[in-house]
Fold each of these.
Amino acid sequence: MKFIILNISLFFLIGTVGCNTTEETTQKEPSCNGEEYTLKDFTGLDGCKFLLVDAEGNKYEPVNLKKFMSDPKDKTKVRVKFRKVLTGSICMVGSTVEIICIEETSPSN
């Protein structure tokens, strides 16, 4: 009987210590620490959609933007991390890239 009570007590002790859910232990999703770009709508060009444009005017065609933004807006400032991918593109305006993370830094005008 002592063995059963000891096991039950030990079970509850371990269970309550392991379930510490204070604000300090909950992790917030880290922000995207990428470069700044502007989302521009190039749907007027054949095969183009939204492109990322940097301060120098370089254009990048994200192949997975819809995964991160369901309804992108023209001229939205964003911070993005991406990697270049070798894939075909009908748009052919810039390099094709795969977004790793993206966050809006200011709403579109």
Note: Residues 2-18 form the longest helix (17 residues).
Amino acid sequence: MTSSSTWINQISELKNNNKIKSRTCKTYVKHPEKEICQCGRLKPSHSYTTLHHLDLNERTDINVKWNEGRDSSSVPINVYGIRSSNGPKFIRCDNRIKLLSLYNLILNDCKKQEPSLLISAYGGAKYFTLSERLEKDFLTGIIDLATRAGMYDFTLKVDV
């Protein structure tokens, strides 16, 4: 079994056993200054299959702040995979997941080899700007480093 099929199989098993979930915004709350939801996503990026269009339209009052507990919900995981044929694996999971499940997923995928380097990236994009080319080069460099160094890179996709 290849590493990629092992990764997909592990996530499928955790998904089927309800040990791993994703989180999604269920109510569009317009950002006061931008044409996006306060969760950070564009309106078309919200799931229309599980939401009522009325919910998306009713909560456009800019005085109402988005609240994760009220305005998001846990859903079956559907964003995971491998970036390229031998590239880094990714998973978008609920921030309320039991960390042991996530740790075991990663450790099993790495054949029980613990990482030589951990990097955690959290926000910060609003404090600096890069040209699109430089941003792409930077992210590609981080991914190349991660692949070569046996590194785990954890991001929260906040302000990225």
Note: DSSP finds five helices and six strands in the chain.
